[in-house]
Design a protein that fits this description.
The protein has one domain (28-226, 235-310). Helix content is 71%, strand content 0%. It is built from 11 helices and no strands. The protein has helices at residues 27-54, 57-78, 87-110, 116-124, 126-137, 145-161, 173-196, 202-220, 235-262, 265-287, 293-309. The radius of gyration is 19 Å and the shape is globular. The protein starts with 26 loop residues before the first helix and ends in a 5-residue tail after the last helix. One of its GO terms (cellular component) is membrane. It is a multi-pass membrane protein.
């Protein structure tokens, strides 16, 4: 989830690709990575919802990162990389942790209150928020009329998906608010990493930010000691935690870093457009989530708006 995380070319808080991965992928490998990222990220919200069904969100995230960090360290060793502990690198890790710690905490807090599809849809709107921040706060870019139209259509779509236009499809307002805050932390993390400008390898960034986030979750645990799991979670919950740790936190991020180096930004943005559609399908199929006409219409408008928004000015 996330994750995203962003100026059309980026949607993750750990993106500073200064060093290439060891090999240049073939077209087939690139296509496989593209499909893998879409599938992994579309299932990630469902994994979050399943995790908090039996585990407290703080313990669920602690377990997720406790599993992810050793795998990330193995990836560092495989690619012959080492963690950097300069002042700028540590600041960059902390900036990335705004997304991995702050965003994930709010995401998991709201995961038991809203459907997994809604989580994916809210995160899918992060390029719009990122573009608005870049344009109006930082003054880095100006929207074309086509992008403004896409933004308007996407916002109308969001109002439908969140049930703001129908009294018959009500969602938990607290859950929606928590997920919106999570998405804002996700966007903030992107700009924070970019502003630090450490220019370190993305896998190093991911590992460092994960370590900082893990320390943050460790510090949280004493406040939720009464929610300490007293028995082993069910197979479904265990698979959800393992999936989030291995696939969402590590594998998808490595693939994504490679994609943003070899594909056009508008092509990478298709991931953000396609992911909520698949997430809605998974939530309906595996979690029996409600699929209303307003949700379908809103999702269609959101995807159309994002597609129009992805068109850059000439």
């Amino acid at each position: 989830m996330k994750p995203l995380f962003e100026q059309q070319s980026t949607s993750s808080p750990q993106i500073q690709p200064a060093v290439a991965l060891p090999s240049s992928p073939t077209r087939l490998a690139t296509a496989g990575q593209f499909i893998a990222v879409i599938i992994i990220w579309s299932l990630t919200p469902l994994a979050a919802v399943w995790t908090v069904q039996k585990l407290h969100w703080a313990w669920g995230l602690f377990l997720r990162f406790s599993i992810a960090i050793p795998i990330a360290l193995l990836c560092l060793k495989f690619f012959r990389l080492k963690l950097i502990f300069s002042q700028k690198a540590v600041l960059s890790y902390c900036a990335g942790a705004i997304g991995l710690f702050g965003s994930m905490a709010f995401c998991y807090m709201g995961a038991d209150k809203v459907p997994s599809a809604i989580i994916s849809i809210i995160y899918g709107a992060s390029p719009l928020v990122s573009g608005l921040v870049s344009s109006f706060v930082l003054g880095h870019e100006r929207f074309s009329s086509w992008q403004w139209l896409g933004l308007g259509i996407a916002l109308v779509g969001m109002s439908f998906t969140l049930g703001l236009s129908s009294s018959g499809f009500q969602l938990n307002s607290i859950g929606i608010m928590l997920e919106l805050i999570a998405m804002l932390f996700y966007v903030l993390s992107t700009f924070a990493v970019k502003s630090v400008g450490a220019h370190i390898h993305p896998i190093i960034q991911m590992t460092g930010s994960s370590l900082v986030s893990w320390v943050g979750y460790v510090c949280l645990l004493p406040f939720f000691w009464s929610h300490l799991p007293t028995e082993l979670p069910s197979l479904k919950i265990s698979l959800a935690v393992f999936y989030s740790a291995v696939f969402s936190s590590v594998l998808a991020m490595i693939f994504y870093y490679q994609l943003i180096k070899v594909l056009q930004p508008t092509t990478v943005l298709l991931i953000t457009i396609i992911t909520p559609v698949l997430a809605t399908f998974w939530g309906t199929w595996f979690n029996h989530e409600q699929l209303s006409s307003h949700l379908v219409l809103g999702l269609t408008l959101l995807c159309l708006g994002l597609l129009m928004y992805s068109r850059r000015s000439a």
